[in-house]
Each structure stands twice: as C-alpha cells, then as structure tokens.
Amino acid sequence: MLPIPFLLLFLSSVLSPSSAADFCVADLSLPTTPAGFSCKKESTVTVSDFVFSGLSVTGNTSNILKAAVTPAFSSQFAGVNGLDISAARLDFAIGGVVPLHTHPAASEVFLVTQGTILAGFISSSNSVYYKTLHKGDLMVFPQGLLHFQVQRGGSPAVAFAAFSSTNPGLQIVSLALFGNSLPSPLVEKVTFLDDEEVKKLKKVLGGTG
Q: Domain Cupin type-1 spans what residues (predicted)?
C-alpha cells in the first residue's frame, strides 16, 4: 500500500490541470462509449476539426412540425467532444413548432436571430414560464425540464441554441407517448385519453398497437 504522502502526490500529479489534454477531438470512425467518443491522435488533428459550417444552411421544414433542427453535437462536430458544449440551429416555417420535449443531459440557451418565437418551459412543480421572443432575445431552459418553441407572426423564424453537453439528448413527449409500440389500452390508461384519440395520434406519429 502506498504511503499517504506519496499517494497524495501521485493523485495531485494525475489530477493537475497541466497534465490534462487540451482537447479530445472525436474519432468518428470508432463507436461511441458511455463516456462519449474516443479521442483522435493529436498528430491527426487539424484546424478543420474545430470548425463546423453546417449551421449556415437552412433546415428543411417540409415536415409535420414545419420546423427543422440542425445539430452541432459531438457526432457532427468532432471538436466539441469532451468540452461539455454544443449547439444547434432551429428553422421554423410559418406555423412551425418544436413540441414539448426535454434534453436529459443539458441546459439550453436559446437565441432568436430572425422572426418571432413563443417559447417556454414547465418546472418540476408544474409552474409555466413562457414568453414571445423577438430577434436578439435569449431564453434559458434548465436541464431536463419540458420546453417548447412555436413560430409566431407572418414570416419564418430562425434561432440558435447552445447546450451544456456535447450530447444533450432529446425526448419529444408526443413521440414518446404515441410513436411507440405500447398497446393502445395501456397508453389510454396512463394518459387518460380515450381510445379514438390515442389511435388517431398513433396513426399520425407512427405508433403501433
């Protein structure tokens, strides 16, 4: 067993900031692990690993939500791997919506850059906080809380989001409830909805059972 002073010195050297790597650019050719992507060898890292241009492109809003999310998470932007940060672009056609959803692993800062968006979240005590946001407005959504964004006004809207994780995770409530294979009677029981409504929503959102 190591003497305590030696053990403390050893731990100090291991945990010292000077011994830590500056970055851990994701090696996207390898599978993910519970801790994220493995690091590329520093000799193979280039400046391109730290630049992502995907958020300059307008997302395709021709879908049921009339909205699009373009992520810059570690699986798209290798340079953020291990840094506990990431970003995304959100495009809204007129009538567009990002329905109630949650990011289990991250808080979110939401910046409107074009148009008008009604956004809000629900706290764990079921208090509701929502407001109409305009260009330049910021709103924060605390980690794990249900939140939403809805386009308002007569023109499309654009927003950018920053997250406190390289992989914030996403669960959309409506898809979780009605886009799965849970038997309809069970969904009806846990949602207090009737059979007709549950089957209608399952049909729209791709669920079975």
A: 53-199
